[in-house]
Design a protein that fits this description.
about 170 residues; alpha+beta; Aminopeptidase; eight-stranded mixed β-sheet; about 30% helix; globular; binds acetyl coenzyme *A; binds zinc ion
Length: about 170
């Protein structure tokens, strides 16, 4: 599991006109900031213990982007799921993108792309055969981001969201 040194690794620096963004592993102290970004940018809210359990179990791929005042302005979190294989009686691991979001003022700078790039390398270490995710069929920004990463629409999950909207189930071979 992670060492202190690992959580201090700065994976990425993005310089904008008046700010500098770093990407690093999420810590317990960051969770409040992560929840704030989630509540501003996505209709799906999760209880605190949900974030905490992702951090406890999949800390290596739980990343945050912070601005120069150390404020969380973006995050990505994954979990690894064991599912029956389509081809035999074995089980396979899938890296499931639970959630990604970037605050509006920090969009289109490549932050989500950097979060995906860095975290996918970590998820891959969990011996997965596929990356998978659900996204609202109306969420063009996120869908174009996933397409840029070569995710393909595998199927539609009917009424996946509480408000009745359908989801695209998108997958990418690891
Ligand atoms: N118009 C068109 N394409 C866009 C736009 C836009 N405004 N914004 C992003 N994209 C696409 C483009 O393909 C872009 O690549 P390009 O800049 O090379 O053309 C690509 O996404 C990556 O852009 P980034 O700058 O890396 O993405 P950003 O940091 O802006 O974050 C995100 C993208 C996370 C989708 C952001 O818009 C957001 O937080 N949205 C609200 C939260 C959300 O919908 N999250 C996904 C939910 S699904 C899930 O979590 C499993
Ligand atoms: Zn999901």
């Amino acid at each position: 599991m992670g060492t202190d040194k690992d959580t201090q690794t700065k994976y990425f620096n993005i310089f904008t006109d008046n700010d500098s963004i770093i990407i690093r592993r999420c810590t317990l102290e960051d969770l409040e900031g992560v929840i704030e970004v989630n509540e501003k940018e996505l209709p799906e809210d999760y209880p605190y213990f949900f974030y905490k359990s992702i951090l406890d179990n999949y800390a290596d791929s739980f990343l945050v982007a912070c601005n120069s005042s150390e404020k969380v302005i973006g995050y990505i979190m994954w979990r690894v799921e064991k599912l029956p294989s389509k081809y035999n009686l074995e089980f396979t691991n899938k890296g499931h993108l639970v959630s990604i979001a970037v605050l509006k003022n920090y969009r289109r700078l490549g932050i989500a792309s950097a979060l995906l790039n860095k975290s996918m390398l970590k998820v891959k270490n969990h011996n997965i055969d596929e990356f998978v995710l659900e996204v609202r069929v109306s969420n063009y920004l996120a869908i174009s981001l996933y397409k840029k990463f070569k995710f393909k629409t595998h199927s539609i999950k009917n009424k996946y969201y509480r408000d009745g909207e359908n989801a695209y189930y998108m997958t990418l071979k690891a």
